[in-house]
Write a structure and sequence with these properties.
The complex is a heterodimer of chains A (291) and B (327). Chain A is mainly alpha-helical and 291 residues long. Chain A contains 14 helices and no strands. Chain A is 69% helix and 0% strand. Chain B has 327 residues and is mainly α. Chain B contains 13 helices and no strands. The radius of gyration of chain B is 26 Å and the shape is globular. Chain B starts with 25 loop residues before the first helix and ends in a 9-residue tail after the last helix. The chains are: A mainly alpha (291), B mainly alpha (327). Chains A and B meet through helix 1, helix 4, helix 5, helix 6 and helix 9 of A and helix 1, helix 3, helix 4, helix 5 and helix 6 of B.
């Protein structure tokens, strides 16, 4: 081997066999995407093809599963989508507001016991929700909030009280990057803690708020455990809870409609992914909790 | 903890928003800022008390009772340690659930992290297309926790599912994996491993931090690919490995959705997918033994705390922080 150009140790390491690496990556992509493509394919297969056609795509495109699934239950699937959207969007608002307030206190204000509260907040990061579900259910039920006129309150109240510590932490980390000189300048102009929040921190925290909004939407949209526990009336069901009704109906004929509704239920998350891919990937890099 | 307090310069100036000129000075400002601190913190504090602390204490109390949601609080019976005794000595399905959960975590978490690290190493070169691959690999982490995907997964490993179709192409006769007690949990493990994208993204960020000079020095010293990986990449990456390991283990213990969907909420076939949280759900919300379920919840919490503590105490021996920071 003759290295003609005496470039002192190339910046990039010798890359081995790029073609081989690309080939491996393509194979992994195929394995990773296979279930998703199969899901979409199956959702437009006829019942007969679902059993007999082992190919990914249908021979005859059968969109009827979507209409069948949409009206498979006494309550139309549209209602479940509206319910899920309502819960998810209000969760976004609640998390954004309450976590921002808490984060500002932790990141910028000095008050007694701040260090202790911060440590407590970090401690709740690792607290599994399953540990709290039984007593929370009892409390909300005692307050008459389970299955009442406002069935989503048990799901939403915690979100308006900054209990999702992950977002508080994310915002604290972000706010620490906002130069303190800005605070000082505002202070000289006569702004107090509230003015600084309103005019400096709030506008500059937009990126952290957007990340929080995207993640809380997706996690709430996908969440099953809490919604399963707290929702008891069919018309209050969210999409994930409604989807499990398909499992109860054991008949094979429900597979197509079930897949169709599964595809639809993943569509909002997928669209978020397409629109915010870079932000999502970088978002988990900032603190990486959950997937 | 370096996180807790950044040293603030002492605040002074006319910004306190208060007219008490007599009390002006750092003390007065701190007072008003201290008040503001608690004002901004109040939603979180109320949440901490009402949604976290009080329920935790309530749950601790209930774990010593035979509470089921049907009897009024006034008639709740104190049963002492009976729930804990039953859990540890007289409830085989509890231990079965513990075994299922441990098996799941011990197999799925290392494999998921290995997949994440392997793919991250493949991607860790600056060339066009890396962003696309990274995004595609990350997609399952966004979708994989949902009921919809669990439904797809169960059907994929059904008797007529796509997996068996693939096997039949190479002449292997499959089986109804999800209905087979020996294989049902494995299909859930595969679902977990499929979501390797999230730890992979974190690995990729960690790999970017490894200084190229270290590889150059190693290769000057004659270290081959493998030696470089062992002596440069792994030690430099150990904090990220540690982070992912703690996180994924804790997540792994909490698997619920897929097991619920696969077994229609029963933990079957033959309790093979009876994850701890599913067992807790069945005990508390199907059988309404909320006192007993509370005891399970507390043991779960203590177990997770203990495992985290073990991770952190062993981390000292293999996690290498190059910035000299001690954690």
């Amino acid at each position: 081997m003759v290295t003609a150009t005496p470039t002192p140790v190339a910046r990039r390491r010798p890359t081995g066999r790029p073609v081989l690496r690309l080939l491996i990556l393509v194979v992994i992509v195929a394995v990773v995407l296979y279930p998703l493509i199969w899901m979409v394919g199956t959702s437009v297969k006829s019942q007969e093809e679902i059993v007999n056609n082992i190919g990914l795509l249908p021979e005859r495109f059968t969109p009827g599963n979507y209409t069948a699934g949409w009206s498979n239950f006494d309550v139309g699937f549209g209602r479940f989508f509206v319910n899920s959207a309502l819960v998810s969007l209000l969760t976004v608002v609640g998390n954004g507001l309450s976590c921002l307030l808490a984060a500002y206190a932790f990141a910028r204000l000095r008050f007694r016991l701040r260090g202790m509260w911060f440590a407590v907040m970090i401690g709740t990061l690792l607290l599994p929700q399953h540990v709290l579900i039984v007593p929370q259910y009892i409390l909300f039920r005692t307050l008459g909030l389970v299955g009442g006129d406002w069935p989503y309150l048990p799901l939403l109240i915690p979100q308006f009280l900054a209990t999702e510590a992950f977002f508080v932490f994310l915002m604290v980390q972000f706010m620490r990057g906002v130069p303190r000189e800005l605070d000082e300048a505002a202070r000289i102009d006569g702004a107090g803690p509230y003015g600084i929040f309103r005019h400096i921190i709030l506008p500059l925290s937009r990126p952290a708020l957007v990340t929080t909004a995207i993640f809380s939407f997706i996690w709430t949209w996908n969440d099953f455990f809490r919604q399963l526990v707290f929702l008891s009336q069919l018309e209050d069901y969210t999409v994930p809870v409604a989807l499990t009704l398909f499992i109860d109906s054991t008949s094979q004929s429900a597979v197509g409609p079930m897949f169709a509704m599964s595809v639809l239920s993943l569509l909002p998350v997928f669209l978020f992914f397409v629109a915010f891919q870079r932000m999502l990937v970088e978002g988990i890099n900032t603190s990486g909790i959950k997937g | 903890m370096a996180l807790t307090t950044a040293p603030d310069p002492t605040r002074r100036g006319p910004g306190s928003g208060r007219a008490h000129s007599a009390r002006r000075g750092p003390g007065a400002i701190r007072h008003s800022e201290g008040l503001a601190g608690y004002v901004f913190l109040s939603p979180w504090l109320i949440g901490l008390m009402g949604v976290t602390a009080v329920p935790m204490l309530l749950s601790l109390y209930l774990s010593f009772t035979n509470y089921d949601i049907l009897t009024p609080f006034s008639e709740v019976e104190w049963v002492g340690l009976a729930n804990y005794e039953r859990m540890f000595t007289a409830d085989p399905s509890y231990w079965h659930a513990v075994r299922v959960t441990l098996t799941f975590a011990l197999v799925a978490v290392p494999l998921k992290l290995a997949a994440a690290l392997g793919v991250a190493l493949l991607l860790n070169r600056a060339w066009r297309g890396v962003g696309l691959f990274r995004g595609l690999f990350y997609l399952p982490s966004l979708l994989g926790g949902s009921v919809a995907l669990a439904i797809v997964w169960v059907n994929m490993f059904n008797r007529d599912g796509a997996f068996n179709s693939l096997l039949s192409l190479v002449g292997i006769e499959g089986r109804p994996w999800v209905n087979d007690p020996d294989w049902a949990l494995e299909t859930l493990m595969v679902l977990a491993i499929w979501q390797f994208g999230a730890p992979m993204v974190i690995f990729l960020a960690g790999l970017k931090q490894v200084p190229t000079e270290l590889y150059e020095a190693a290769s000057v010293d004659g270290a081959g690919r493998f030696r470089q990986f062992r002596n440069v990449t792994l030690p430099m990456l150990s904090p990220v490995i540690f982070f992912n390991l703690v996180l994924e283990t804790i997540n792994g213990f909490q698997g619920f959705t897929a097991a619920f969907v696969l077994s229609n909420g029963t933990g079957g076939p033959v309790d093979s997918t009876l994850m701890y949280t599913l067992n807790l759900y069945i005990t508390g919300f199907t059988e309404l033994q909320m006192g007993y379920a509370s005891a399970m919840a507390w043991v779960f919490l203590l177990a997770i705390a203990a495992i985290t503590a073990i991770f952190f105490s062993t981390g000292r021996f293999w996690v290498h922080y190059s910035d000299g920071e001690d954690r």
